[in-house]
Amino acid sequence: MMRAFFRSLWHVLVVLWAALDAGRRVFFNLLFLALMAGLLTVLYYNRPPHVEPKTALVLDLKGALVEQHATNVDSLMLTGLDRDLEHHDVQLRDVLQVLDAAARDPKITSVVLMLDDLQAAGMPLLHEVSAALERFKAHGKPVIAWGAHYDQRQFYLAAHANELYLDPMGQVELEGFGRYRNYYRDALDKLGITVHVLRVGTYKSFVEPFVANGPSPAALEADRTLYDALWRSYTQDVEQLRRLPGDSLQQAIDTLPQSLAAAHGDMARLALEQRWVDGLKTRHELRQLMQAKGAPDSEHKSFRQISFEDYLSLQKENHKGKAVAVIVAEGEITDGTAPAGSIGGLTLSRLIREAREDDDVRAVVMRVDSPGGSVYGSELIRRELALTREAGKPVIVSMGTLAASGGYWLSLGADEIVADPDTVTGSIGVFALVPTAERLADKLGIHTGGATTTWLSGSHHPLRPLDPRFASLIQSSVNHIYDEFTARAAAARKTTSEKIDAVAQGRVWTGRQALVRGLVDRTGNFSDAVHDAATRAHLGDSYHLHYMDPEPTGLEQWLQRFDGMLPSLAGTALSARLHPLLPFVPDDAARDATSLVNLLKGLPVGPTPFMTLAHCLCQAP
Predict the structure, then answer these.
(1) What's the pLDDT score for residue 188?
(2) Contact partners, residue 374, CB within 8 Å, separation at least 6
């Protein structure tokens, strides 16, 4: 009986084992087939794109146009949090490479500009893209622009097109340059907070919102001069490109209420009547136009085309032979290390040193787009550039959107400074802000007390009045840094400190204005700076550009591989928690807070209670 039971049990176990084994084989075989299918799918969809004759390059730029991708963890995570940022940024160097390659490619017959998703972009960067579009057109190939709408920066690029079209439901938004600031003096008084300002520079106007209720005459004068020059540059360029009468853009804005009423509120019709666009077309009509100009794509029921990203993936970089190294200095300046998209004094110093010690590198171009920051970090970079010059390698600074305060300081180590005509540069000045809250402490019933061995110990306590002797220390330090700044500028510009002081005082200038005042050597674009570097190094045309970027950390590389998916999810979750508050936060107040936080979060913490800054704390218009 027991023997029969065990025999039956054994038989059941054998059957179960055979079923389990068969199931295991089926499962792993299916898993293997699924993996193979996935691999084949990935290989199929990631195969290099093929360019056929009569192909149009669709320049569909998405996100902000930047000098360098930001790779730090904060930026990658905050990309998903920013309610205004739906796309990754796009590097200027990639756009220039694609347009110049397409100009030489016989299979690319035209460029279609699709700029609806292009977001922030400084005017100097737009000038660089515009120059590349003109180089493309010089090969006899047309540029066609279409948009559902055009903001001011998008329209500047679109104006370079041979044919410019707008959706019948779209509009062209031109509003000029300028901004209003918030002033917090009364609010801070009510809170019981006193902001002590110690500065050198009549035009260092960033501090005014904390100590006044409106802009000073000096600040208004400087802003008006800057904005008028930039707007004049913009309107003259667009009017020339669109063959419009001089001052017609300003006149159109001045009479906009009447003109729009006459057009029955139709913004697209108004744009056509003003000759801002050549025609009104839907997206479908654009496809039909491009099919007639090029070749139809029956598979996708469109015209034969290749996207910006796909065409970029086909470009191969040359890494052999003589090179001009390009080092990007973009963002806030701090003392130590920093990832791409920001400036660490130690990080950029190391990159400059590597370029100096690389035998293939014959010259260095530093592309500057910075409002400044740490004086020490700026000086570290300037010293390395000076050492590179002394080693016999030419150094050229190419100024982008901003090269102010510390951004100008570090540029003083170059053989030559090339500024875009609309670069915001200068701001040679130094300041310190020391807030104290002794009146707030009184209101809250908070008191401080204690014993110290010297007056200096505890003299910077935020809940005690600012000791005049401590204020004197800071002011002396600020004065010294300003003297150092003007002395270095005078030596680099081959003039006197008195002449530099006359155009300094914390004031910013356009590139054109800076040239007249001797702060830069010439106006021009990035290509001009590269050409000058190659000429000084006697390279002729036999060289390539070697971009030297900081290496991202392991975590940053991991986040990049997910293409922003995880940062977006994290940002969405946090935005959902904050969403009820967002409508009540004014955009300009949020920008003020963001500007200050972005500056302060990168500053090193040291043993001193204050840090001297060379920062314009300004934004490009």
Answers:
(1) 86
(2) 333, 334, 335, 345, 406, 603, 604, 611, 613, 614
